[in-house]
Amino acid sequence: MDVILTGNVSNLGRTGDKVKVADGYARNFLFPRGLAIRSTAKNAKQLEHQKRIIQRKLERELLETRSQAEKLDGLELTFERNVGDDEKLFGSVTVRDIEQALHEHGFDIDRRLIKIDGPLKKLGTVPVTLKFHATISATIKVCIVATQ
Fold it and tell me: Is residue 96 within a helix (H) or strand (E), and if so which, with residue range?
């Protein structure tokens, strides 16, 4: 039986693939779980239409993400912290602190997008990468200064 996959199925194919499977496998496994539909001209046309809609939505989201990354690129955030001997901080600057500062600057960024190698515990300027997408990222500067 020819079916069109509506979901990714391991060892069979990805969404939108047209595959030939045993009748029983289609009736007893794929159809009840909503992973496939019968391969007809109407169903194929409907699936192509849905793919185009999803593709347009993804392109729009990528454009918005790219423009936000361009606005963020080069932004400098300054944090004041109490300092002890050897310029070591009491506490640290964490991903949550960076997320909060970005929010105060008008950017709603999820902290999982902020990439640092652990909490920042020394004075100075550190480049921090914001990874929005596999191909879209921005680098901001995080400056840590001693309180007066």
Answer: helix 95-104
Residue at which a domain ends, from 47, 64, 81: 64
Q: Tell me the per-residue pLDDT of 95-127, one tens digit each, with 9 for 90 and over.
A: 999 999 999 999 999 999 999 988 898 889 999
The rounded distance, in Å, linking the Cα atoms of 1 and 99 is 52
**CATH code of residue 34:** 3.40.5.10
Q: Residue 68: is it exposed, middle or buried by C-beta count within 10 angstroms (0-12/13-18/19+)?
A: middle
Whole-angstrom Cα Rg for the chain? 25
Query: Are 67 and 132 contacting, i.e. CB atoms less than 8 angstroms apart?
Result: no
Token pair listed for 115: 């990439």
